[in-house]
Amino acid sequence: NKQVVLRDYVSGFPKESDMNIVEGTTILKLPQGSNDVLLKNLYLSCDPYMRMLMTKVEGLDVFGTYTPGSPLTGYGVSKVLESGHPDYKKGDLVWGSTKWEEFSLVSPTQILFKIEHTDVPLSYYTGILGMPGMTAYAGFFEVGSPKKGENVFVSAASGAVGQLVGQFAKLTDCYVVGSAGSKEKVDLLKNKLGFDEAFNYKEESDLNATLKRYFPEGIDIYFENVGGKTLDAVLPNMRVLGRIPVCGMVSQYNLTQPEGVTNLANLIFKRIRMQGFIVGEFYHLYPKFLEFVLPHIRERKVVYVEDIAEGLENGPAALVGLYSGRNVGKQVVVVARD
Ligand code: NDP
Known about the structure:
GO molecular function: 2-alkenal reductase [NAD(P)H] activity
Keywords: Oxidoreductase
Oligomer: single chain
Number of helices: 8
Largest sheet: 7 strands, mixed
Order of helices and strands: EEEEEEEHEHEHEHEHEHEHEHE
Strand content: 25-35%
Mean pLDDT: 96
Distance between the termini: 16 Å
Number of domains: 2
CATH architecture of the largest domain: Alpha-Beta Complex
Protein name: Enoyl reductase (ER) domain-containing protein
Number of strands: 15
Structural class: alpha/beta
Bound molecules: NADPH dihydro-nicotinamide-adenine-dinucleotide phosphate
Shape: globular
CATH superfamily of the largest domain: Medium-chain alcohol dehydrogenases, catalytic domain
Pfam family, one: ADH_zinc_N
Domain Enoyl reductase (ER): 37-333
């Protein structure tokens, strides 16, 4: 049972060498009387929050932390090999909590959804049809409260979550601009993902001026994925009664000293609602989300870009690549295809 284990707690940017590939105990049978499920892992999801679990941070460990020497935990798509739980049976496909290894014993009391629709790529359940999809849906529609015609700005716009926020904004008849870290990503946003405009934030020396250019009348919704300098430049460009769903702050996760944000007073003058959220609070909406998104996928009205790494041994490189923007679209690791 090949596993990816954390070598030790990480400080600063994570490196491939912070993880080891080891041969763990092979689990072939469910222990007697167990309520767990034995899974064969097919696709693993690389998610930015995983960095936060690699360090013990006082007050920020809402998700717990990884244990050095043990496999990473995360989201994945898996096949049930054996089940001690009445809701699951051998052969079922599931997505949700699993571990970075070939075979895992998982308790169904954790997040675990049965996959009912297999006419779409299975890997989509790590992305558009899984946690990032729900994040974009809940963050944009529930937290962002969008209205037709509003101006929307999305950072990390070509990523797992951002590419969907932009497309959901277009379905709502909003004007949407995305920022991303390379020309390739900017082209993708404009030519494939339907954003009205996009720019490479690494090439803009004055982000405030850039935003004024794209939003002469201001931003109604800023979907926050990165934090730091981007947030600071957005605040003075927000409109009165604007909303900022705070999904993530990936630019801050590896800093020992987070960057200060100086323009927060705009929240007062413009009565802006800035609200953090965690996708886990919204999973009761998953059936409604599927009803909304599946027809759009089937009719190609919503598309999804994935970046596929082959093999568990390439998982550490794929994961750390998130923090340098190496991934183009949703970063997935293939462990097995069936
Ligand atoms: P992505 O697929 O977007 O991958 C991360 C991307 O972040 C990189 O590709 C890179 O894109 C960008 N990035 C990395 N470092 C920086 C930096 N220093 N400054 C600016 N951008 C950077 O990830 P996801 O779509 O999965 O996640 C997006 C955000 O949503 C993250 O902040 C994540 O933590 C958050 N999230 C929150 C959830 C919640 O429940 N609240 C659930 C899921 C995700 P580029 O090349 O464009 O810089």
